[in-house]
Specification:
Elements (H helix, E strand, L loop, with lengths): L1 H4 L3 E5 L4 E5 L6 E5 L13 E2 L6 E2 L14 E7 L4 E6 L4 E5 L6 E5 L9 E2 L8 E6 L5 E5 L4 E7 L5 E7 L5 E5 L1 E2 L8 E6 L5 E5 L4 E6 L4 E7 L4 E7 L9 E6 L4 E6 L8 E6 L5 E3 L2 E9 L5 E3 L7 E8 L4 E3 L2 E4 L2 E6 L5 E14 L14 E14 L6 E6 L4
Parallel strand pairs: 25-33, 26-34
Antiparallel strand pairs: 1-2, 2-3, 4-5, 6-7, 7-8, 8-9, 10-14, 11-12, 12-13, 13-14, 15-24, 16-20, 17-18, 18-19, 19-20, 21-22, 22-23, 26-31, 27-32, 28-30, 28-32, 29-31, 32-33
């Protein structure tokens, strides 16, 4: 495959919103996919292909024209015969064909949250680390839901999304034991251990955790680490020695070796849930306004149209009669069903602003540094006749 592609390594270049290729023979780097502009809007719904051979969401024929959004990790999939990409910025999983350059969405519909099932219906939340197991399934560190997810890939390349650990956007903690009760906190990396279990870089708990699919339990391999953001097994030690874990300590800017203990720890420091009081809203029309002011020295980047965006969904889905989905602008009129007594509105707001203006005509210069501001809300609501008909949120323009 490397000979056909012309490079040896695929790199997730997160901040540049690109996939890069690296040749190990001459050190040459090249851009494989991505135009450098962060993907803010979906170019169309992903779909199941006509032959039913799995989820397909083709994004065009020229990979250098495709807009990506914070690709966080990559892994080769034997079953898909493609590179799988965790597209953190759009809460989706992409694929990339190193030979043809084809880029496609293979899982996640772009809504943020934790929802399992067929790939095209699933929800992710800042999908980050990836690892392939011996059966060809892909494990995903889904950071914003503090979850460990799995892409179960069938022989016909169809994909089903499953959750091994984690409950949702508001549930986190540091608890070992049965997976249904275990909790992580913002995991960013995963790798497969020699025994087939999954090691997890549990970033905000400062720990490396272990999920055993055979027993369905979670344990702790190491703790006291400085924001471990990724982990991998090093099999290159001297003959007869045990493999070690290489852990990325993001908060110390270093890589450290960690032994794989034969007896894992059992930790229970509790499970937590973020609580927001239920907002009383009236059934029917709800006017949503998200206020945003660019920080001093910046202005909204309207060179290619409206630089703001709202993405809205609900749990349960029937709560939202209309007004869901993704579109530009920070104003939206929602219609709430009178038949659903309560639920959660999932709202993501984005705005792009650039340094400037510095030119005489007040336009943003081409070389200006640009910034993406994003805020995610999960707003519990209870429907009642005398409830509010307007909802106002603030998207903070902080550097």
């Amino acid at each position: 495959m490397a000979a056909k592609a012309g490079y040896d390594v695929v790199i997730a270049d997160s901040v540049n919103h690109r996939l890069r290729g690296l040749s190990l023979t001459d050190g040459k780097a090249s851009t494989l996919a991505g135009n450098g502009i962060q993907r803010l809007l979906e170019t169309g719904p992903a779909r199941v292909d006509e032959e039913g051979a799995g989820f397909s969401g083709s994004l065009g024929t020229d990979p250098l024209d495709v807009a990506l959004s914070s690709p966080w990790d990559v892994v080769w999939s034997r079953k898909l015969n493609a590179v799988v990409v965790a597209m953190a910025g759009t809460h989706q999983i992409f694929s990339f064909d190193p030979v043809t350059g084809a880029v496609a969405i293979i899982a996640g519909n772009g809504l943020e949250g934790l929802l399992d099932g067929p790939a095209h219906e699933s929800w992710f939340a800042q999908s980050s680390g990836l690892a392939e197991d011996a059966d060809g399934n892909i494990w995903v560190a889904d950071s914003e839901t503090s979850a460990l997810r799995k892409l179960a890939i069938a022989e016909d390349a169809s994909i089903t999304v499953e959750s091994a650990v984690g409950k949702g956007l508001f549930d986190f903690g540091f608890r070992d034991g049965p997976a249904a009760e275990a909790r992580l906190q913002h995991p960013l990396g995963v790798t497969i251990l020699p025994d087939g279990s999954v090691a997890i870089a549990d970033t905000y708990n400062g720990a490396v955790r272990r999920y055993d699919p055979a027993s369905g339990t979670v344990s702790t391999l190491a703790r006291g680490l400085a924001e471990p953001s990724d982990v991998i097994v090093d099999h290159t030690q001297s003959a007869g020695s045990e493999p070690l874990l290489v852990v990325v300590e993001a908060n110390k800017h270093q890589l450290v070796y960690v032994p794989i203990p034969k007896e894992a720890q059992q930790v229970d420091e509790g499970a937590s849930q973020t609580h927001r009081p239920k907002s009383p809203v009236a059934p029917g029309t709800l006017d949503l306004t998200v206020r945003f002011t660019a920080p001093t020295g910046q202005k909204l980047d309207d060179r290619w149209g409206d630089p703001t965006q709202l993405k809205i969904s609900s749990t349960p889905p029937g709560l939202l009669v209309s007004g869901g989905g993704t579109s530009v602008g920070l104003l939206r009129t929602l219609e709430l069903s009178p038949d659903v007594p309560e639920g959660v509105l999932h709202i993501t707001a984005r705005a792009a602003a650039c340094d400037g203006p510095e030119t005489e005509d007040g336009e943003i210069p081409d070389h200006a540094a640009c910034h993406l501001y994003q805020q995610d809300w999960g707003i519990p609501v209870v429907l009642q006749a005398d409830g509010d008909t307007e909802l106002v949120l603030d998207l903070r323009g902080m550097d």
